[in-house]
Amino acid sequence: MDKSIIFFGDPMCSWCWGFAPVMRSIAETYGDEIPLSMVVGGLRAGNTKVMDDQAKAEIRHHWEDVEKASGQPFDFSFFERNDFIYDTEPSCRAVVTMRNIMPEATFGYFALLHGAFYAANQDITQTDILVELAEKFDVDSTAFRDAFESPEIQKETFSDFMSAQQLGVTGFPTLVLRDGKQLRALNRGYCEFDVIKPALDQWVTETIELPEEG
User: What span, in angstroms and rounded, lies between the C-alpha atoms of 162 and 179?
Assistant: First the structure.
């Protein structure tokens, strides 16, 4: 079976945080049978503008919507920050770093970044925080930092951003089902596990009928 589930997301995407329980359910239900992989999307990668009152109001509105829809916890004291630059590139690059150093921890680290940012108000745009969180997976901090700052990881992170764009992934979270060379989107944006489970069940069990010989 040459199938896999590709998750497109960003550690600083609130709807991806809302979707985190769904991803856990997918991993628990299908992870032993279908490989899961991740492409980081670069939601606000390279942003250099300090978050002003208007941006705070817009982002807070999103957070409130996600909290209501998903029940995920948020620390709204985040909006008391006065100098925050909402640049998602560092946290995306940290996920790519973990994907290279300890692939099996990629989703776990992504989830840890989510919780640190949204529920604990940690600044995951800062390298020291990203390294500290990686250490929870028994990753050597020096090796992680060196890889994180390397041109190779920077290039791979940008390649993820480009892959998302080339596949037409314009919002997160998005799940893409890969069967050989065939790709199809399962969802675009937040939804409950029960909504997508029937389609996943069918896709996991379906096979491609080969033409009869002769």
Answer: 21
